[in-house]
Design goal:
This is Acetone carboxylase. With 70 residues, this protein is α+β, with helices and mostly antiparallel strands. 14% of the residues lie in helices and 29% in strands. The protein is globular, with a radius of gyration of 12 Å.
């Protein structure tokens, strides 16, 4: 889940303990519990983009990674 900072209203990285601004939307779906059209989003900073995507990919849940604002 993306978090918003109070002062900037900018999404923050979803990685545990990270307070960096998110630049990426890691889009995923758990096919065991979600319908195919359901898309969940984890926000990611540059540092955690690969880590979060790899976690979901290993579980066959990663749909795509999009840049915010693109």
């Amino acid at each position: 889940m993306a978090h918003l900072s109070d002062s900037e209203q900018e999404p923050l990285c979803s990685a545990r303990g990270c307070r960096e601004a998110a630049r990426w939307a890691v889009v995923w779906n758990n096919p065991r519990i979600h319908t195919p059209d359901r898309e969940k989003i984890w926000a990611a900073c540059d540092v955690h983009r690969t880590t979060l995507a790899d976690f979901l990919s290993a579980r066959s849940m990663l749909l795509r990674v999009d840049q915010f604002g693109a």
